[in-house]
Amino acid sequence: MNESPGPVRGGEDRPVPPGIDLNTPSIARVYDYMLGGKDHYESDRRAATSIMDALPEAPLMARDNRQFLRRAVRYLVADAGIRQIIDIGSGLPTAGNVHEIAHEVDPDVRVVYVDNDPIVLAHGRALLATNPNTTVITADLRRSDSIFNDATTREFVDLSKPFAVLTASILQHLADHEGPEGVATTLKGWLPSGGYLLSANFLSGDDPRAPEIERAFLEGGLGTGRFRTREEQLRYFDGLELVDPGLVHANDWRPDERTPTHSPAHRLYAGGVARKP
User: Fold this and answer.
1) Element spanning 147, H or E
2) Model-level pTM?
3) Pairing of β 84-88 and β 110-115
4) Domains of the chain
């Protein structure tokens, strides 16, 4: 089952925000292309095409992640009672953003979007200009102080009260030498008791295509995208209490009527949510 990644036409006909390098593919823009968006450039489409040559269903994997994120955010707000969310590596705005999902349950939930791509800041500010409970900042996952000590974050989130940190499709883009497990440990250190960590990433070991697809990510222009085993990813949650059903294939995490019943990318992606005691 193949689906078109969306329009070939990208953002070349619009003004380029300051700081945007059109010659280097961006994680946020590659995913935007795969999700059918229009904020991408030729370098992003080349990188995406290289990935889809190895896995034609790559856009489905991106959409499976969005569906997992939708269900998990709804759980965090409706069931766990979370009213503050920090979405790290949020990417470009798409339909069904985190704040839209959260605000379906409670319009007073506060959401801080975080990304290190300046195009996300530019588009996010425009999108959220009239939403008093949602904002966007530019910061780097590898420097947690740049996120949690940011004045805007502190304005929107009371770090002494329970909040959720979302890391969907972002730890997978850290190389081994950047220490994703250590990054997760640092993020957990910021959580108060009753806070939650969400993590979802490429999965190795359950689908024989994973090594080939990983090579496409690493060598096809994007330069990042590690597939890690379930055991490796479970370490991200050390010290936390995993919410049932634990760390599982993304489509197996509390599926609902909108969850795909069959996806060719089913065994290539895992996700979980955990609570800090």
Assistant:
1) helix 144-148
2) 0.89
3) parallel
4) 58-275 (3.40.50.150)
